[in-house]
Amino acid sequence: MMTTGFISSLNLWNAPRTGAARLQTDLATATKEIATGRFADVGASLGGGVVESFGLRRQSAVLAALTQSNTAASFRLEATQSALKEIQSAAEATLNELTALPADQRAKTVAETARGRLVALAGALNTSAGGQFVFGGTDSGTAPLTPYEGSPPSAAKAAVDDAFTDFFGFAPGSAAAAAITPTELKGFLDGPLAGLFTEVNWSRTWSSASSRTIDSQISLTETATTSTSANAEPFRKLGMAYVIASGLGLSGLSPEAQEVATVKVMDLLGQVSGGLTTLRADLGRTQSQITDANARMAKQTTLLTGQIRDLESVDPAEAKARVDAITTQMQMSYGLTAQLRSLSLINFIS
């Protein structure tokens, strides 16, 4: 049985408009693909292959995060190396000055320079980079060292003065210090004073740094130590050398006792120079590791980017052809709509 369908001008007008909405969506999709160079809807385009695509992108994101972390670590290491160079230069200058002077002139000369270099040591160990104190170890949010001299006196100075007074019965700089024998002074330097510069006592009176250094993952398979601590032995020995030179009133001691003190200072400075060289070498190796890791990760990122592009990229020529075809269809649709809207019986009634 034949049936007839209902045809009206309203249906004819709406048909092109319905198709135009779909064409506009297709045009937006094709235009986005031309702009980005990849599928507008990766999941719909790749189907099951989207799992591989997301996996590659996840690996690429991990490499990017590691590279960014390495940038921060490199910045921290550069600041650390600069401060270590400054500290070592001052220590070696002090040692060279003492070595070049006659024994009877060393105490007076080193007392004049050691006080300023003790202040500079605290400043260098309080170096910060990116808002973090590079010698703070894992506690990088707090300045590691409190200046030795100050008002009120620092805990470190109070501890040294108290140890001197307890051992000799009078304070540093007292006139009675002239009677201290070389043996007595050596006993104090190697005993109570040295005890103040153990890691435990240094942390109690001098430093608020953590002895635990920062270990960073620098690649997918490598970790490295990317900081040092103000509690390291070379800094403690250097602090002790400067305190002996400037904080015990050497000028008031006998020439023999002065020689004991300056020889001790020179011995400590010699050990400090070797220790700082080792620290700088260790950090230098870490810097080299980071550079190599970044180079490898850059190559891995390039490879991953190529694989992602192969999976997700669209053919620009094909996408452009789709845009042109859709644009043509839309123009035809708009033209047809305009023609249909002009159809009216009124136009044919005379």
Automatic annotation (TrEMBL):
Species of the source: Methylorubrum populi (strain ATCC BAA-705 / NCIMB 13946 / BJ001)
Protein name: Flagellin
GO MF: structural molecule activity
Flagellin C-terminal domain boundaries: 267-349
Entry GO terms, CC: bacterial-type flagellum; extracellular region
InterPro entries, alphabetized: Flagellin (IPR001492), Flagellin_C (IPR046358), Flagellin_N (IPR001029)
Record Gene3D superfamilies: f41 fragment of flagellin, N-terminal domain
Main location: secreted
Function summary: Flagellin is the subunit protein which polymerizes to form the filaments of bacterial flagella.
Pfam families: Flagellin_C (PF00700), Flagellin_N (PF00669)
Classification lineage: Bacteria, Pseudomonadati, Pseudomonadota, Alphaproteobacteria, Hyphomicrobiales
Flagellin N-terminal domain mapped to chain residues: 7-138
Record's keyword annotation contains Secreted: yes
Source domain of life: Bacteria
Compartments, as annotated in UniProt: Secreted; Bacterial flagellum
Family affiliation: Belongs to the bacterial flagellin family.
UniProt keyword terms in alphabetical order: Bacterial flagellum, Cell projection, Cilium, Flagellum, Secreted
